[in-house]
Amino acid sequence: MILRTGQRIVFIGDSITDCGRRVAATPYGDGYVSLVRAFVSARHPELDLHWVNRGVSGDTVRDLATRWERDAVGERPDWLCVMIGINDIWRRYRGRAADAVPIDEYERTLRALLGRAVDATGCRLVLADPYLIEPDRAEPQRADTDRYAAVVAALAAEFGAVHVPTQAAFDRALAVSRPERWADDRVHPNQPGHALLADAFLTALGAGPAAPLPASRAGERGLTAPR
Predict the structure, then answer these.
(1) Which of 7, 35, 113, 163 could disulfide-pair with 78, CB 3.0 to 4.6 Å?
(2) Which position among 59, 163, 188, 194 bears the catalytic label?
């Protein structure tokens, strides 16, 4: 487990991160952020962590740039978790090409934002890939998504960040299930889809299930194994 007691963990991104955190599900939303917080708290009750969700529905990396000082740098994170890029790609396929963000601009902008956060706060980074819940890697939007995800993986290596391979997590599920099991539109996950995302984050953070109590210690506490 890489998180330490008293640390502040800030999540920032688009609707997948937002997930109602500004309206019906304040302050964490009802998606993967809330699940990560709940499972880390349950599995590591010894940690006194502070959680912040700053996702905004519809955001691209351009939108992040306009609010970065307030919602990323200004939150003074110990860990800054960033998942952005789905809208940057998706809008090209939704009749909004002018609002899509070309991959070179995406990389340039995201690198600058990450560098600013690290320089200003000394935070560690957690970078999650954009994804498309689509098993056909030759499908145009999926192929684009893989290219943007490769940018994120490279930036994670460049910054020494924790990398969360969300596309790979969905791909494992898609090997034995259909896309609509996880989302109606291949982008916005249902509850099982958010659980899959949360599991990918928990794995990357080293926050898996607590180890079983050794038999010798169980005996010390007066515990017995079930018969």
Answers:
(1) 7
(2) 188
